[in-house]
Design goal:
Blueprint (H helix, E strand, L loop, with lengths): L2 H4 L5 H5 L25 H6 L19 E3 L9 E9 L2 H11 L6 H7 L11 E5 L4 H7 L3 H13 L8 E2 L11 H8 L3 E2 L7 E9 L3 H12 L4 E9 L4 H4 E3 L1
Parallel strand pairs: 2-7, 3-6, 6-7
Antiparallel strand pairs: 1-8, 4-5
Helix pairs in contact: 5-7
Bound molecules: zinc ion (ZN) (2 copies).
One zinc ion binds next to helix 3.
């Protein structure tokens, strides 16, 4: 049994989520059950908005062709090829919420299904989930990023290597400025063992990229040659935060 599955019996709420819901988790339409995805109906999935092109070649941010990308300007060499599947609009946000906070771990499969064409994978790459701190991992019963990496890995025949560890529980990132996020994440990760040469990080949401950048720095310092990343959702940032027109 996978380690993240083995923890489920500790937690009654998570055990209950082994059952399937009677209706789509997002729209409550009972017709949703019985489709290929028992948790999120085809209509709700079809309403998720794919990220448009052109995108920054490095961080995957949809961007005007005449604009320098500000998001990834300071990223370390060796960290490139980040891609997200859909905008984090209210529907996509609720799907992430169901996975992270409501115990619906099978939603990882629904999210992985729309990430299939993102993977910047070549020979020898491994999927590395963004880890949770021990306390949050215990209370949640599983790590949602690991569940997503397992789902993607199964679908694509790519190994999952949970080589990254969270050294301390960081404060929730959601209410922090970009500067505060960077400080909050400083020394948040470690890679105590051997790391793959080619890494594809897996996370649920790309907001400012600070979490992925911090993880990439640790993996590159530990010997990875190349780190890229995939996320299900991407927060829509105000244009001023994305770039400056030249
Ligand atoms: Zn639905
Ligand atoms: Zn960029």
């Amino acid at each position: 049994m996978r380690p993240w599955l083995a923890a489920f019996p500790d937690r009654l709420g998570a055990v209950e989520r082994w059952l399937l819901p009677p209706a789509c988790l997002l729209c409550a339409d009972p017709a949703g059950s019985g489709s290929d995805d028992p948790l999120i109906c085809p209509l709700c999935r079809s309403r998720w908005r794919r990220l448009p092109h052109p995108q920054c070649q490095r961080c995957g941010q949809p961007i005007d062709g005449d604009t320098d990308c500000r998001i990834c300007a300071e990223w370390p060499r060796g960290f490139a090829g980040v891609a997200s599947a859909v905008w984090l609009d209210p529907s996509a946000r609720r799907a992430v919420h169901a996975l992270k906070y409501d115990g619906w771990w099978r939603v990882a499969e629904s999210l992985a299904a729309v990430m299939m064409d993102l993977l910047p994978l070549g020979a020898g790459a491994s999927l590395v989930p963004i880890p949770l701190g021990a306390a949050r991992r215990r209370s949640r019963g599983y790590n949602q990023s690991q569940a997503m990496a397992e789902a993607l890995g199964r679908r694509r025949g790519v190994p999952v290597d949970p080589c990254l560890e969270r050294t301390r529980d960081t404060q929730s990132q959601t209410s922090l400025t970009p500067e505060e996020r960077a400080a909050n994440l400083k020394a948040a990760f470690s890679a105590p063992g051997r790391v793959p040469a080619r890494v594809v990080l897996v996370d649920d949401v790309f907001t400012t990229g600070a979490t992925l950048r911090s993880a990439a720095e640790v993996l590159l310092a530990a010997g990875a040659d190349q780190v890229s990343a995939v996320t299900f959702g991407r927060a829509e940032l105000p244009l001023a935060a994305v770039g400056r027109t030249i």
